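Per your request, structure below.
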């Protein structure tokens, strides 16, 4: 098996690794495990052996007040208090949670006094909705809307990224066909991108931001399989509870 990935260590450091060093061929984003690190041929730290276990998002439950404080620190759910989050969790239809958590049901004893990753997913979808909503603009965070074609995906992605950056005409998109398109920046320069694959669009936009010495970048995450984009300072990453809830 060939390929590379990134490990996030306990101290927050990131370490690239060769997937062939894993003890399983079924490498899932968010899996936790153990890693044996030793100097590689260049003298830099290298992951010699990676033992992964599939993550269970319900393993981590955090007191509601602590979890919401961490979310606020990263600019999320900014208008909601812990009490509001408790009320929303109790009021959310079960289907609203299971649709973004691969069908996992909430524990029967869930009191609403703490939060796990599934709860967080439901709250984020409930708070921001899909696409470029008022709250998405305010918090520079948006979830991709459900679309039925690559073309609609690409248009919604570019519209959303420009909205959270705060420059509606930062780039414009023209489709070539069902699989490729061209982004044109404000200087008139053209950039080829793959339609339906958001990574290439994000890479182009972040390259333009870097060329302008902008302090922030677009960060891409998957919220239980749902594309989620935030515009934050390049070095500003979630830590503590937020990292545990969303990044693994």
């Amino acid at each position: 098996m060939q390929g590379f990935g990134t490990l996030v260590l306990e101290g927050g450091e990131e370490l690239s690794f060769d997937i062939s060093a894993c003890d399983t061929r079924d490498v899932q984003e968010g899996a936790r495990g153990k890693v044996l690190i030793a100097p590689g041929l260049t003298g830099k730290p290298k992951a010699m052996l990676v033992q992964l276990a599939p993550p269970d998002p319900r393993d981590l439950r955090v007191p509601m007040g602590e979890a919401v404080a961490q979310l606020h620190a990263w600019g999320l759910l900014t208008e909601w208090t812990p009490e509001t989050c408790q009320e929303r969790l109790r009021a959310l239809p079960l289907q609203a949670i299971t649709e973004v958590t691969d069908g996992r049901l909430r524990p029967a004893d869930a009191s609403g006094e703490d939060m796990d990753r599934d709860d967080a997913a439901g709250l984020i979808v409930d708070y921001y909705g899909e696409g470029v909503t008022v709250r998405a603009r305010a918090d520079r965070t948006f979830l991709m809307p459900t679309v039925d074609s690559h073309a609609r995906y690409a248009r919604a992605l570019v519209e959303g990224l420009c909205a959270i950056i705060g420059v509606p005409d930062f780039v414009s998109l023209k489709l070539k066909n069902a699989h490729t398109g061209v982004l044109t920046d404000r200087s008139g320069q053209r950039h080829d991108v793959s339609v339906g694959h958001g990574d290439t669009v994000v890479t182009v936009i972040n390259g333009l931001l870097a060329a302008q010495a902008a302090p922030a970048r677009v960060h891409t995450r998957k919220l239980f399989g749902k594309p989620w984009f935030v515009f934050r300072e390049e070095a500003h990453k979630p830590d503590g509870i937020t990292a545990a809830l969303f990044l693994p």
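The first helix runs from residue 64 to 73.

Regards,
D.
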